């Protein structure tokens, strides 16, 4: 890790260069999978970088799901371990496709439902539909590479998504192309035990822990864009939010 040539040959801010260097170290086995990273203090003195820089580099590795921090024990490499947990920010409005891309993972989907339907009473209320309106539904098992991560059931007003069949990868990309990208969302998260069907789709045992997430997203003008009910696997996600003192 000694700074030497790598600081010069790599581009970007110092913490990004350090982050890449640590990633290289993980890829080449200098820092083995499931093993600890040297403590922050030691990394700082090894690299002649400040602790702030080291902390930022580690934070990026945590966000990418490459490193986990365990209370009181330090940072550990999760590496290519297939069962690693991912950190998901609760303060940014992003799509599944974006979230996975940011972590260097490929987002895939198995479609469960895609088309135009007669709305349920719940959908009528959530989307403020008028009588006679139909609804666009997209239900998918969402995967990171080969690993099932979540089941998402999105409902949208038809004028927002007239052609549900046009969504093949990212719903948010299709919405954005039509000028309907949500700018705000309300989200509710509840702990659940997975029923046999959902557990089966997620490759888990029935009754495993899951998170039920309800998201209602809005356009700038306050109009509801999507009402999505999702089931996330409990063993794969850590939700993170920054809290500020209320005044
Ligand atoms: C996220 C959203 C979901 C949205 C989807 C679009 C939650 C918790 N999150 O997964 O509401 O429909 O992104 O993703 O529901 P896409 O653009 O990759 O299709």
Automatic annotation (TrEMBL):
Keyword terms, alphabetized: DNA-binding, Transcription, Transcription regulation
Protein name per UniProt: GntR family transcriptional regulator
Gene Ontology molecular-function annotations: DNA binding; DNA-binding transcription factor activity
Lineage: Bacteria, Pseudomonadati, Pseudomonadota, Alphaproteobacteria, Rhodobacterales
Domain HTH gntR-type: from-to ranges: 12-80
One Pfam assignment: UTRA
PANTHER family in the record: MANNOSYL-D-GLYCERATE TRANSPORT/METABOLISM SYSTEM REPRESSOR MNGR-RELATED, MANNOSYL-D-GLYCERATE TRANSPORT_METABOLISM SYSTEM REPRESSOR MNGR-RELATED
A single GO BP: negative regulation of DNA-templated transcription
InterPro entries cross-referenced by the UniProt entry: Bact_HTH_transcr_reg (IPR050679), Chorismate_lyase_/UTRA_dom_sf (IPR028978), Tscrpt_reg_HTH_GntR (IPR000524), UTRA (IPR011663), WH-like_DNA-bd_sf (IPR036388), WH_DNA-bd_sf (IPR036390)
Protein's UniProt keywords contain Iron: no
Source species, domain of life: Bacteria
